[in-house]
Automatic annotation (TrEMBL), chains A, B:
Matches recorded under Gene3D superfamilies: 3.30.160.20, Ribonuclease III domain (1.10.1520.10)
Source organism of this protein record: Leptospira kemamanensis
Family recorded in the similarity comment: Belongs to the ribonuclease III family.
Catalysed conversion reaction: Endonucleolytic cleavage to 5'-phosphomonoester
Domain DRBM: 172-241
Quaternary context: Homodimer.
GO biological process assignments: mRNA processing; regulation of gene expression; rRNA processing; tRNA processing
Every RNase III domain range: 17-145
Name under which the protein is recorded: Ribonuclease 3
Annotated active site: 63, 134
Any GO CC annotation of this UniProt entry: cytoplasm
């Protein structure tokens, strides 16, 4: 079945789409699919042939492409992860803010064709950013198959997973400690940076945390957040809460 | 990366799994994946090594496999379908009742290993039926890739799409006509079967619909529902509502 869309593209648009392929390290067999992924409904509405010419169908497909690749990535990367953990991580990795960030990384909003009304609003909103990323994935899937999409997404999933892990860890220990101190002593724990040393790419931070005279523990890490997190963890252990 | 799970299966289980492959027209390279797809948490809980040995992770993966194949099927089968229509059809095609029906079609519930408590409840509930179907898809995807899953699912998607279309059509015209008659004349339309002829595989039905003296129209179809639907459509056309 051919998915080719009979559209005559202007030389400017073709050159734009070539730039887009360079940015994404892709090479489309059918460039009209790539074009379509960046046609917003508001632009297509100014056209007569609406239903063949906006990116919503590709976005519908791309959403599922993103879903299976995120699920597969987590299934393989966390061989002992429980289903609940995988589902929670997946929902963060495919969330609109996470996807919109990738969209901006590739400058996708700049290639999106918008109608006059939408253009006048100024900046492309987060949902539109995320939508055209999904539409791009849908186009890549149709043009080149699942493995090309996998190659394209995997490095991003790796970064996301790391970022989420870091955020989770930090949030968890610090939040637990803060809630405990507030409840027990009506005080907040205080973090102090004790030391910061080493060259830029290999910095080591040492942080202490205390709450009045009740406890004082410390922790280290390759950034301040991580060191605070380790200090909070030590405090929780000291307080027999871990 | 290997997904093989080191499990020693009993000769009875192996023979069961062979039956399952015959029923599904599949042939697994790694039979322990197929086994795992049919291990419910309640059964694994009676084991010590819970997290390597139930089907929830495979179900997590299989859910996305189902998602992308349903999306792709609809994208290609309805080249002019709007995103809203595709999304609506997809949600019906991947719904628990629809998937549980497929699960029963392949007798999956009979192969599911349940814990004692779950077994005592008697019949395997609809969600468990659907879950093991998704887990099976996850296992098939890991063992044989997306295309095997596509080949497995496509004929089912075709049937589902037809069934949904029929149900939708019937519901639409008949419901519209009924609501109109109730509102305008405080009466319900009446359907009468006028004729039923032809051999079993090629039956033709003729149905009339009327509401007091206001109108009488008829419609035919290869089953009674379809004929009623066509009669209602004719009535709506007669009443200038279509």
């Amino acid at each position: 079945m051919s998915h080719s869309i009979r559209i005559k593209l202007s030389p400017e648009r073709i050159s734009s789409l070539q730039e887009l392929q360079t940015l994404t390290h892709t090479s489309f067999k059918d460039i009209s699919l790539l074009h379509l992924a960046f046609v917003h409904r508001s632009f297509a509405n100014e056209d007569s042939d609406r239903y063949l010419s906006d990116n919503e169908r590709l976005e519908f497909l791309g959403d599922s492409v993103l879903g299976i690749l995120a699920a597969e990535y987590l299934y393989k990367s966390l061989p002992k992860g429980k289903e609940g953990i995988l589902a929670k991580l997946k929902s963060k990795m495919v969330s609109a803010p996470a996807i919109a960030k990738l969209s901006r990384h590739y400058l996708f909003p700049e290639f999106l064709l918008l109608g006059k009304g939408e253009k006048e609003k100024g900046e492309v909103n987060l949902n539109l950013q995320a939508d055209c990323f999904e539409a791009f994935l849908g186009a890549l899937y149709l043009d080149q198959g699942l493995n090309s999409c996998r190659i394209f997404l995997t490095p991003h999933f790796q970064k996301m997973e790391k970022a989420i892990e870091n955020a989770e860890e930090t949030k968890d220990y610090k939040t637990i400690l803060q809630e405990f101190c507030q409840k027990k002593w009506k005080k907040l724990p205080e973090y102090v940076l004790l030391k910061e040393e080493g060259p830029d790419h290999e910095k080591e931070f040492l942080v202490s945390v205390s709450c009045e005279q009740y406890f004082q523990t410390s922790g280290d890490g390759k950034n301040k957040r991580r060191a605070e997190q380790m200090a909070a963890k030590a405090a929780l252990q000291f307080l027999k809460l871990l």
